[in-house]
Amino acid sequence: MGSGLQRAQSFMIVATLLYRASHLTVGALAVAQRRSELPLQYAGFAAALGLSALTYGTALRRGWFDRRHIWADALIVGCLLPLVLCTWGGLREPPAIAWAMLLGGSASAVAAISLERLHALVVIALLVVTHFIGYQAVGASPAVILGHLNSIVSSAVMTWLFRWYLLRQGRLLDEANARAVAAEAHKARYAERLEHHRALHDTVLATLTTLASGSVDANAPEVRRRCAREAAYLRRLIQQTADEVHHREIGTALEEAVGSVESLQLRVTAQYHDLPQVPPEVAAALGDAVREALNNVRRHAGTGHAYLTATRDPDGRGGALVTVVDRGPGFDPEQYRPGLGLRRSIHDRMVEVGGRATVDTAPGEGVRVELRWPG
């Protein structure tokens, strides 16, 4: 579709083309009524038709008018043609020459929108002078002359106003589009930063918190391997080359989540049954949400064992159902305010891919986190 300015210009080309076409139609009918006389009218009409095809055909191809064609159209069709028909064409009555005079209106209209202001005024002045001379030569009444000259000037003024308004609206539309694109880019950058923050919370921060608590041996091979993986992630994050959407299957994503927490000495009993095919971004969201749920078990449940179950959603829609359960002390949902991990790393992450996360718990009954996609 192009920019707003381009669309405004295209509209003006089509509008003035239709205006000229209406005048040519009148000319064709007038010439056809005089088939046996005044052959110069045929040549004049052919010249007007040819210049119109050149002027508007070029404009449609290039997106705007060629000023050389506008000058040729104004001088030949608008100014010269009526005088030639009056002098050598044998037209001696106002009705007979009216079709040629009519073309001056569309010539002034296109000149007003395609030429510089001073040049447009010169063209309009030439049209007014030559048409006044032409109508005087055929004995037109003052009312006819004034009405026709008013038509030439009015056509120029109205098309210029239309073009000014359309170009103004086109610029406003382009500015609005530019602001929308900038806003979307800002939103995308914010979403990217938010996703990085979630990943840092679920990985590096979880590892550092565990090491700081002294609950694991920092020199254990599995802990060192995890630290190396997360150092590589931080390096990619700094270089802004990390791939946020991992193209992996749901089983692989869940196994990576389990492996990351098992390296921090959380035992996970995992059961997978009839896993569905899901989009890559959904698999990534499920894996990241499960990893954070398991991190919460390790940090808060007071137990070293968690249970993971993943299966096809039994509702028959081909979705996925994943649960993470612990047998810790649980908590009272009425008195608990969700933290960053539960709110952003689990709930928000699932909502963004069209899923949902629910937490079922009570004091003394452990915690059950259910992830369902689609929601």
From TrEMBL:
InterPro entries: HATPase_C_sf, HATPase_dom, Sensor_HK_TwoCompSys. CDD domains: HATPase_UhpB-NarQ-NarX-like. Keywords: Kinase, Membrane, Transferase, Transmembrane, Transmembrane helix, Two-component regulatory system. The chain crosses the membrane at residues 40-58, 70-90, 96-113, 120-138, 144-166. It comes from Streptomyces virginiae. Residues 284-374 form the Histidine kinase/HSP90-like ATPase domain. This is histidine kinase. Its EC number is 2.7.13.3. It is an enzyme of class 2 (transferase). It catalyses: ATP + protein L-histidine = ADP + protein N-phospho-L-histidine.
